[in-house]
Structure formats: C-alpha cells, structure tokens
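Recall the central idea of this unit: under ordinary conditions, the amino acid sequence of a chain determines the structure it adopts. In this exercise we apply that idea directly, starting from the sequence alone.
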Amino acid sequence: MPGLNDGFGSPLSGDYIRRQALTLRYILGVDIDSAPDVGNILEHVLPELAQGFQFCVVEDGKIGGDGGLTTWDPPAVSLEESVYLDLLRSSHRARFTGAHEIGHLILHRGQVQARNTKQEKAIGGVFSLERQANSFAAEFLMPHDVIKNCKTPLDLAKLCNVSVEAAERRMRDCSMWPRGDERKRVSNGFNDLLESLKKR
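Accordingly, the structure predicted from this sequence is:
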C-alpha cells in the first residue's frame, strides 16, 4: 500500500510545524486544554469544521504500519478498529497516532501517508514525512506553554495524558530536561561512572 514507508517531503522547520499545531489548537478551541480529546476531534469536530473530511474505522490489518492512515480525495483519516477502541480509552499510543495522522492532514496535503515507526529512520532530518508528523503530534499534545509549568516528565505525562517516554523526549527536545538539580545529579552520576571505569 502506498504511504506505508516513510517518504521525502518538503523541508519543514520546527517553528513552522509548531505554528501549525498551535494554530489548529486555537481553531479547534482547545488552545488552553492540556489534554484535548483526540478521538472527539477526529470523529466529530473535524468533520464539522472541514468540508468533505471523513473519519473512518477499518478492520485491523487493513492499513498496516501503526494502524493509522491519511488519504486524499476526499481528505480522510482512517484508524484500525483496535487503535480506535484504544483512542476511546485515551490510550497514550492511540492518542499520539491520532495526532500524528492529523499532522499528515495539516502538513502533507495530497500525500497518502500512514504512521509507521519502523520506517521513520529511513529518511533523516527535516525531509522525513514521518518525523514531521511526529513533531506535529508532540507540539499538538504537549505545547511549550504547558511544558514550562512541569518540573519532571512524569508531571508532563500526567497533565497531557501522554506516556512518560514521550514526555521526556519532548522535554529534552525543548532543552527543558533534565532541569537544575536533576541535571547536576545526572552529570555527577556520569562523572562518578567515568572515574570508577578509570580505576579498573
């Protein structure tokens, strides 16, 4: 199926992706919501706001990749049934998949693309459609204004309803983790490890 592998896209800057994510949050009226309901956005809000947009739930195995697919003519996001059910339960992974597909919808007009974490390393840097959609999902689910009020990845994960791993990656990408004493503790621990290795 086309789109199941990562593809080359136009280079998009982090600032551009951030603006697109924040603009969409504003348009959807969730700009101050720390954990927007991605399922509701896909299933109810976008079909009302965007003429012709369709949200579809398909049988497991129909899409491949990570169970989400963005297509065009008409513009549509499809989720496999298991992903959709997980989304209704606010599963961290399903929420990220839904936001990732919204990212393809906003950033990659006309390009059929599915979330596929196994393929995203094939194309590096700013050209990767998968990395761009992942960046959009991170910006949409964990905006900078929310992160700055969190001391640890666990705080961010709880506030934004994402996994601790995603929260830590996001805080590191924003140079907001480790912070202060934690950064010093990590640095001291690394130095202690180096010293112990030298003595062997």
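The mean pLDDT is 87.
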